[in-house]
């Protein structure tokens, strides 16, 4: 899809993806975030969460990946413009299956007119419909003419 195909109010929902033990361990390894809520099963079993939880940034990363799998931004994406007002509403537990809904909340052409800006609201929910994370992620996209690179 290109800039001209988007309108305020459109929503797209991804497939689900289960967050695994391996996801959390690998994320801890490459991010160096080895805080106990993510890596210490013994200390977390009696915590408010009842066990280890996924990293907040792992949730954001998965939300971005799920949005990519929708296939609607792939041919027109130029640049990610920022992540704003991202909130962590509830923990993501190992074994949770999450999906993302992306709502188009704004569309405007750039001042040069050769690209467009999409304001997008991301809502990441778990298998029970609980919102676990949400926020706004702007994206610059190509116009149908293909200019704007």
UniProtKB/TrEMBL annotation:
One of the Pfam families matching this protein, by short name: MaoC_dehydratas
Domain of life the protein comes from: Bacteria
Domain MaoC-like: 8-110
Family, similarity comment: Belongs to the enoyl-CoA hydratase/isomerase family.
Protein name stated in the entry: MaoC/PaaZ C-terminal domain-containing protein
Organism: Intrasporangium calvum
């Amino acid at each position: 899809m290109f800039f001209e195909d988007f309108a305020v109010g459109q929503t797209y929902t991804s497939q689900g993806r289960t967050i695994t033990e391996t996801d959390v361990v690998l994320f801890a390894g490459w991010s160096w975030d080895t805080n106990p809520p993510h890596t210490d099963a013994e200390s977390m079993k009696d915590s408010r969460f009842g066990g280890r939880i996924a990293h907040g940034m792992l949730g954001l990363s998965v939300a971005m990946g799920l949005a990519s799998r929708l296939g609607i931004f792939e041919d027109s994406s130029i640049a990610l413009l920022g992540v704003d007002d991202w909130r962590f509403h509830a923990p993501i537990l190992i074994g949770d299956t999450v999906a993302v809904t992306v709502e188009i909340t704004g569309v405007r052409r750039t001042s040069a007119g050769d690209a467009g800006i999409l304001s997008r609201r991301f809502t990441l929910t778990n298998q029970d419909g609980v919102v676990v994370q949400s926020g706004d992620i702007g994206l610059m996209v190509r116009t149908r003419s293909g200019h704007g690179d």
